[in-house]
Amino acid sequence: MNALRLLRRYMSASVKAQMQYPGSMAMIVAGQFVTTMLDLVAIWALFSRFGSVDGWRFGDIAMFFGLVSISFAIADFLTRGFDVLGTEFIKTGNFDRILLRPRTTTLQLIGHDFRFNRAGRLLQGLVVTIIGTQSLDFHWTAPAIALALWTIAGGVALFVGLMVIQGALAFWTTESLEVMNLLTYGGVQAAQFPLGVYEKWFRNFLIFVVPIACVAYFPVLAILGKPDPLGAPSWLLPFTPLAGFLFFGVSLLAWRAGVSKYTSTGS
Amino acid sequence: MELARPYVAAFSARFMLVLQYRAAAVAGFATQCWWGAIKVMIYAAFYRASPSAASAPMTLAQVITYTWLAQGFLALAPWTTDPDIALAVRSGAVSFDRLRPVDTYSLWYARAAAWMTSRAVPRAALMFLLAGIILPVFGLSEWSWKLPPTLAQAALFAMSLVLVVALASAVVMILNIAVVVTLNERGVNYLLSPFTVVLSGNLLPLALFPDWMHRLLFLQPFAGIVDIPFRIYSGNLEGREAFAGVGLQALWTLLLVAGGRAWMHRVMQRLDIQGG
Fold first, then answer.
1. Is B276 contained in some domain?
2. Which structural domain, as residue segments, surrounds residue B209?
């Protein structure tokens, strides 16, 4: 059986399991939609009080926020296995079983669980993008759509990379590190605003360390056809999502190092 | 005094227990620092860039102090039901609490209050150390957590903070009873936290919402959990309005406790015990 077919099998098992509780599922999706939507309330209130900030309008922020939400929702959907690696696999010794099967560890962990309730955040990302489109009166041309899909792909790679690193760290800590939520949930938070509002040290962190700006701020500028007020060359902007894939590559190296470090626990 | 003893004991036992979870405190603190820093930078950008900043109902310094306070005391807000009560409902341990020769409402209330304060105290202390002392030492005093402007405001804040615990515990008690009724805490938690985050002023100081909403936002119960105490601290809410704020906190606490007691009485008349 090839990898894709196996993943499809995993996915259908996941669907069946989660659909056992349709009411609970609907409530979680709705709750997540409302909760993630609230950030937009704060953004709206700030803009209605203060007007534009350095030429940025409400619609621009909605575009940054919408696309990064979609990326994160997809990544979160795929990476439950890495999220619970510490508590469910390493602490219990269950990771031994994964190592024994004739498939890669990453494939099996992705297949461990697909969280369909992440649809709440996905829906929120789409709605926020539509609100941004309306607010800016933006017309989606074919190149703009292609660039948006490319941006989302880069964003998914980056967030999956973060989760893989969180998993890899669990080989040392044997505990799922919730501090990594800073970079995932906190990254979504930071990506909502144009880079210029942040202090220099934080900007550099968002470009060069965890390149969240490269999968939100820079490519969205290219989509909107705006120059970067901070002076990044315009020809470079559409290529920045590559940094997300680069980050994913680095995370796989960390993963390898982690797996080779694994010693079984549990009994 | 003798009457209060079991509840004081329940409070201090839970307080000391929760205080043991140091890793959780450090993780929570790190998250709150990150969130606080992002918020402070964003507010600063809006205030710096906007011509209408001068007429805003709060100064930037007040908003910054408010933000650090709200992050430091985050655990005082009623985000979820008390996890111990939810567990007791599922396992059937509620029946033990009913058999104790004490008032169940007061016992759970004391435990909820202890659970919230014991998580808030270490984080708020760390937050003050970082945002109130370390930031100014490094020359970043414009980003820092400032002291209250007058002694009178400080005294009023102390009173208001005690009422935050009282009010938030009363809200958590309503949720606890809802869990006893529905037997599951997830739905209740999902329903509540959006309200808490917006209406308390955690997401954004309520004063920064459009002016026409202010009166309504001030009068609703959640304002007493974040907005009223921290605006008193920062000197944004003074004089008669500050007293009105503290009065509202007390009033809502009384109403919610009375309502919670009445509801609990009804629910406990017919209680299905889970487990076996």
1. no
2. 2-269
